[in-house]
Amino acid sequence: MKSTKLSLVATIAIMGMFSGVNANEFDEAFTKGTLTGDATVTYETRDQKDDDKGAYYTDEAYSVASAELIYKTAKFYDFSLTYGMRGYKVLWEDDANSAPANGTGDASSRFYNIDGGDTAQISNAYLAYNTKIIDAKFGRQKISGDWINKTHDAVNITVNPMEKLAVGLIWTNTKDMRVLARDLRALNNDINGNDGIYKLDVTYKIMDSLKATAYALHAPTSHSVYGGKVMLDSKANDVSFGGFAHYMQTDEIAKNTDGSAKDDGSMYYAKAYVGYSGVTAALGYIKTGKDAGWASANAAGETIDPFEEGDALFYVDAATTYATLSTTLAGVSLSGIYGMSEYSASKGSDTLKENEFCLWAGYDLTKQLNLSAIVTLLSVDDDAPNSDMTQLSSTLTYKF
What we know:
By secondary structure, this protein is mainly beta.
């Protein structure tokens, strides 16, 4: 909560300074603010072939309700304040005494340490400053980018010094926090102690359909990450097409417990897509480092994994080929993926195989009420660290 408290103190201080300039405008920033949110009920059931392979996931079934309220002030001299909370309540568990890896009760497999009860978490608490050139946020916020993802206590600044150039600066000390309708992981400040991770990225638009990004992340005493990607999104008549190529490598600074150097990680990711008449198809290939996989690259999260589970991508020397297909039929949005992975559970171990199929479906019952479902089928080798699995999730969400 340290950085959240600092962001709130900064907010009060800055707003207080400006309140002396024009008290009426300051008051109007709050009275003209907006309140948004949702009420959600989610259900999930999971059937595994081998429950004795660990407690990360076991056979489970549960339902959890949650609701989020987010208040955002109007702008005051280009500043605004956003504050939100999500509350959770376990409605039902097939086994309230089960012991997944992060608590007691079936729901704790995704809602960490909820232990059959209820809880609330701050989902947003940040001060924003926004102009045509600068977009800055200070405090708890959702971030989705290369190797920084989900909810973070962070400083996040994007500067557009010219039309085709964007420069991003991020500092975060939050690991893998999630305050979502289907997922809850409370604050965990263990990225490089309290020093956190620093990120710089530069994106240049070569032309309207083509842009390139280079980035660097640094966690003092822990690791560094360097990468870049080229992205194409274009259209010819009624056909859309494009894709990207992305490369990353790490420089591991910390040592193993025996004092030896850690292996560096790496990744190559390529994807191509084509769309026509409401149907989009894509092919992708992801290759992780042969010695350490991603290594420490995903310490603050990742946006690489295209699957619902995608466990194979987190192992060493993983080669994954996948295909996706998405469309809308009778108002139902459908998106499917099938992928095949070969990987090693650890450096030098035997090669294992994993196949995963996922189908996402969504339907708007009204303009504000949506029903969605996810089917996941996982098939793995007998010697794999995880298990064959069938998983079904459904979520009913009312947004306002």
